Amino acid sequence: MFMKHLFIRFCSDNIGLIPIFVELRSLESDNLDIIEHISRQISNSIEGFTKFQLEYGLKNKKFILLLDGLDEVDSNQRDDVSKNIVDMFEKYDGTPIIVSSRPDGRFAGWNQFYVGHIEPLSIQKVKELISRIDYDETIKIDFIEEVESRIFETHQSFLSNPLLCTMMLMTFTEFAEIPNKMHVFYSHAFDVLFSRHDRMKASFKRKFYTELAVDDFKKILSVFCALTYMKQQFVFTENSAADFAKKSIDHCSNQEKPANFIMDLSESISFLLLEGDELSFIHRSFQEYFTAIFLAERTFKDIESTINKISSSRSEDQVIELLYEINSEALEIKYIRPKMKILMQKFDEIDLENNPAEIFSLFYLGYMVDHESSIQFLVGKSSQSGMFYAEYYGLLALIERCYPSAGGYNLDGSDFDWSEIIERQEDAEDDMILKIDNPTNIDIIGTPLFNHISLLFHRLQAINNNLELRQNSQEELLLHMFDRDP
Q: Does the N terminus or the C terminus of the chain have fewer Cβ atoms within 10 A?
C-alpha cells in the first residue's frame, strides 16, 4: 500500500521523473530479469515500446523504480532477485530505486542503498486514526481513554500498525480487554470477523455461503493458510484460491464447496480482500497465525523438516513465535527435542578447543565483518535445488526467538568487538567488508569468533539440559496423575 501511495504521489506531484511500479511477486520464475519484465509490461500497453528505450531512459535518469514486495518473492529465488536489483543500481547509476520488503538480513550487504523503516504510529497518530474510523462514538472514546491511560505503553507493537490498531478496537468492543499475547489477539480478532455484530454498519446482517460451525471453519482455514504459506502464495486469483480451498476441505474430510468457502473468506468475514481480480490476506500475519495453529494441532511425517524450513528461511515472519506461544510443548516435542538430541551427539564427537570450525559449520556457512566492526553470519546460499542452509541454523534461529534470555548471551554476536578480525587481514582497508566462506580453525582460534562459538556451544548445552529436566518432570507428573508405576 505504501509503494502504491508513492507511485500515485509521484505521478501527481511532477517530480521530474517517470515512476515505474513493479510488484516483484509477478516476476516469472523462469525469467527473473526485472528490466525484461518492465519492458514486457510497458510494451503490452504502449505498442512499439522496446527494451532499448527503457534502458536509454534509465541511463539518462528519466525514471524512478518502485520495486514492491521483495519479501513476497519465492525464498529460493530471492537471492537472485536481490542481486539483480543491486546490479541494476550499479548499471543505471543515478536512477533512484526504492525497494519495499519486510526486514531481511540481505540488506546488510546493500551498501549502495539506504535502509529505512516505516515509522510506527505515535500515540497521537493512534488517537487520530481511531477518531476517523466510522464506528460507535462512545466505544471510540472509551478505547482512546484506555490507549492514553495504559495500553499504548503495554501494546505499542499492536497499536503502531494501522490495521492491527483497528482490529484491536473491534476486539476491545467485544471482549472488553486487550490480550497480552499475540496469538490471543489474533484469536479474538478472528472471532470478531467471523461472528460478531458489525458496529460499523447499522442493521447489518452478515450472509454466509457455507454452513460451517466456527471450529470447522477454523480447521479448514488453518490448512488453507498452511498450504498457501508453504507455497509462498500471498495473492491469488479466484481460481487458484478455490484450488487451495478444495485441498483444504478435502484434507478435513468436509463436503463444503470450495467456491462458497472463498466467498465466506472474502465477502462474509473480509479475511481475504479483493483488489481488481486478485485476492490477498487482510494482513499476512493472519496467514502466519493460522499456519502456527495448523502446526500446533497436527502431527505429520515431515513436520520436523517443515518447521526447520520455516525457521531457516522465514526469519522475518511470526510463525515460530506464534507456534511457541500457542503450544510450546508441542513445538519442543515435534522439533526442538529431537533436533537437540542429535546436535548434542555431534557436540560429544567434536573437540571444541582444537576444531571450532566444525562447530561453526553446523550453524553457519561463513561471515562478513564491515568497517563498523559488526558481524553478519552467512547462513544460506542458492543452489540448483533451491536455498541451502547450514544444517542446524534453523534450530539456532528458533532458539534465538523462543529462548532469547537463556544464558544471557546474544546469539547474533552483537556482544563482541569484531575489529580484531579485520585487523588480522594483511590487506585490510578502513572501509572494507571482510567476507570469509567456510572459515578454518586458523581463521577462528584466537579471535572473538572462537569466543562466540564457545559461548554458543555451552549455551545450547545448558538449554538442552533444561529441556531434559522439564521433560522428566512432566513425565513424572503424568505418572502420578494417572497412578501408574514408573
A: C
